[in-house]
Design goal:
Elements: H1 4-27, H2 32-41, H3 53-58, H4 63-74, H5 78-87, H6 94-110, H7 113-128, E1 131-133, E2 139-141, H8 145-166, H9 173-190, H10 199-208, H11 217-228, H12 237-249, H13 253-259, H14 268-287
Antiparallel strand pairs: 1-2
């Protein structure tokens, strides 16, 4: 016989399960279970333990906010975005690109060294084939160490920024340095020359790209997909828009101005914690736990 408490808990289960399936199908893809087994369950030596800063950051639900921030920030480099705009198919299949990115991050962080090296090798091979010219004649190549350096720096800065604001336990300054150093391991293998190994070096690297950043057609496309018209069903729109607002709130002010997005005139504290923590908590609730692990079947 059902108890009164079980009757009270039943109404929340169905929408929770539905929301979890929606999130997983978009971020992890239809083969999330197979990917989780390959990444977490396969025996073998790994680069990092679950206690390492990189695992704590890359395995937390705040990665959803960090991923949005990273894509917005990366979009400001026209040469780095040219390869994405011309070759990744993100306009027609933005969730497919997100799934490939999530697979790369999860594999390089949590999988066996053999699987991680194989993944990085495949990405390097793809990069070698992506090259071209902007309409103004500037050449680009996805394998260019300078462009890879921008993508890497914008990504890890975004993941760390989101974790520090929305994560359950922010990293200490020493742990933040370790996170940057650990992320540099796979960056070197991918082709980044002299990636930063401390948080201070990371900020200096980001600043060094300042004169190369600009609003472009590719930037406009990214803003349309991530901010203005995210390709999501109505039921997911409110939660996603809170995630997006949390990502915008932790962008550097200069990046927000270049992107043409609202600055936090009312104060970052107003935007950041209520929106970001609530929306990140909603993702945790949907996935059933505070971290994104094999048990959740949703690698980030």
């Amino acid at each position: 016989m059902a108890t009164a408490s079980s009757h009270r808990s039943t109404p929340s289960f169905a929408p929770r399960k539905a929301l979890a399936q929606e999130i997983r199908s978009r971020v992890a893809g239809p083969d999330a279970g197979e990917r989780a087994a390959r990444i977490w369950d396969r025996p073998g030596e790994r680069w990092f333990t679950n206690e390492d800063p990189i695992a704590r950051v890359n395995g937390h639900a705040s990665m959803y906010v960090g991923g949005i921030r990273a894509l917005l920030l990366q979009s400001l480099h026209p040469l780095a975005m040219a390869g994405v705009a011309g070759h990744s198919g993100y306009r027609d299949d933005p969730w497919g690109r997100l799934q490939r990115t999530s697979d790369y991050v999860a594999t390089s962080t949590f999988a066996t060294i053999l699987d991680a090296e194989a993944m990085i090798s495949r990405v390097r091979s793809i990069h070698q084939r992506i090259r071209g010219h902007l309409p103004d004649g500037r050449a680009y190549a996805a394998s260019d160490p300078h462009l890879l350096g921008w993508v890497h720096a914008a990504e890890i800065d975004s993941f760390l920024a989101a974790h520090q604001v929305y994560g359950a336990t922010p990293l200490t300054p020493a742990e933040s340095d370790t996170y940057v150093e650990q992320a540099a391991l796979t960056a070197r293998i991918l082709g980044v020359e002299s990636p930063p190994t401390t948080y201070r070096e990371l900020q200096l690297v980001l600043s060094s790209y300042g004169g190369e950043l600009e609003y472009s057609e590719a930037t406009s496309d990214v803003i349309q997909l991530l901010i203005e018209e995210p390709p999501l069903p109505p039921a997911l729109q409110p939660a996603y828009r809170m995630l997006a607002a949390g990502a915008v709130a932790i962008l550097p002010a200069t990046a927000r101005r270049l992107l043409g997005l609202p600055t936090a005139r009312l104060g970052d504290a107003v935007l950041r914690r209520p929106l970001g923590q609530f929306s990140t908590a909603a993702v945790r609730w949907a996935l059933g736990q505070a971290t994104i692990t094999a048990e959740a079947d949703a690698p980030a």
